User: Which sequence fits this backbone?
């Protein structure tokens, strides 16, 4: 019984680590448009939250961060981890939409 619990906890930890890496990858890539003037000039829509897709990306980032914090707490249950997984998937999708919209606008 203790082994099973340890195995389940190990799998849960791996899932959380994987989700955290995916979330951080999107946030780092998006952030690079803020920090690199050339990239920012190439696709200015990615830093302008007045753009619909960028606003949606910002919202998805906030929700993924909140879900990350909730899933990492000691009181987190499987539902919290699933919500985190969904939030990370939503963040990745929002990033793709925002990037595509910025490319279209840039011509």
Assistant:
């Amino acid at each position: 019984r203790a082994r099973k619990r340890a195995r389940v906890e190990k799998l849960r930890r791996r899932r959380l680590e994987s989700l955290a890496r995916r979330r951080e990858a999107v946030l780092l890539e998006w952030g690079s448009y803020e920090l690199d003037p050339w990239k920012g000039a190439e696709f200015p829509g990615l830093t302008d939250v007045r753009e619909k897709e960028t606003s949606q990306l910002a919202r998805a980032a906030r929700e993924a961060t909140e879900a990350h914090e909730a899933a990492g707490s000691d009181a987190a249950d499987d539902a919290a981890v699933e919500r985190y997984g969904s939030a990370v998937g939503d963040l990745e999708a929002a990033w793709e939409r925002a990037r595509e919209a910025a490319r279209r606008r840039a011509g």
